[in-house]
Amino acid sequence: LQSDNRQRNLMFHLALLFCCVAMVTYFLAFVSPHWLESQPEYHSQFLRIGLWEVCFDGYLHPTDYVSKAYFGCWYIYFPEFSRISSWLIPPWYYAVQMLGIVAFISILLSTIAMGSQFVRVLNRDSKRWLRANTIFHLLAGACIAFQLIVMAIQSRDRRWMPRPDQNRLGFAYAMALIACLACTFTVGFLAMMYIKEDEEQLVFSDVTDAGPDIGAAAASQPMGGYGGASGQDKFMEAGGGRYFSGVGGGGQSDSAV
To answer: 2-36+85-195 in CATH: which number?
Structure first.
């Protein structure tokens, strides 16, 4: 039993560790404008873009009829980008942003729940919370994986950011990749805990169900190892040199040898 408890505690602490890694790394990816960035040696007019921020250095969009040049880093929904918003934020980018919100909220809720379990505010062995935390991280991992795949594919699309051969996936993309892996490991350890709980409940259920049968079998066995045809029970005390003899007809007091 102690060995099982140690295993459960180890799996929980490992799951909590990877949960915290996922929280920190995805927070950095969520707020950083370095999902896609230009390589410095090319001095591109496009500098970098994240989920919520984009940076330009004198960028002129070919279809902008007023030929406005964009400088600096701005919120991606800044009104100044209204004329190029259909190019800057295509439909797939909306999907990436929404999945990012879902992933961040899922990891945040699971981190709060597992932190509460760590300080014993919530029951650490509760199957309901095991299921909830597993679902949260499974959902977050799936959303982040979709983000990574779509961003990697679309970053090579010439209809989006100019000169894709001069761009590269940046720091935030790497952080999101680490977060996705951390979510996967968290799901694995939580699933192991869930399976362990099921196994222990199954063993306990088997023992409980077999209890009356074991009791009946024990009652049918002869009492004591010294019982003869007369039904005597004898108990020998090895250390004291004394014995107790109880005969079916009546009791007999202790006698010293």
So the answer is: 1.20.140.150
